[in-house]
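Justification of resources, computational component.

The compute hours requested in this renewal are based largely on the per-chain cost of generating structure records like the one below. Each record pairs the submitted sequence with a full structure-token output. That output is archived, and it is also reused by downstream analysis tasks.
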Amino acid sequence: MNTAVTVQNLLTAAAGETCNLSLGGCFIRTSPAFAALPIPSRLSLQFHLPGIAEPAVVFGEVIHTGRHDEGFGVQFKVVHKKAAWYIETYIGTFL
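The structure output for this chain reads:
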């Protein structure tokens, strides 16, 4: 389950791709143009979910990095009801 995401912290904003999206967090893949953020970076995420008109916005914190700098894990700290519904609806399409 991969989806586009915009990641923003105090210094940068970049587009990336998520995998393992859940209501509690996600893993964000890195690329040469998008490096992993250090633990415990705080950030906002805008998920661009297929079939949903507006982005789902959540706030989280980097809690781990992947092997070989392949990405980083984010635990969601603030998920408003509307964003939770969007994410839950998206995940439900795979069940």
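The chain has one helix and six strands. Residues 31 and 94 are 26 Å apart (CA to CA).
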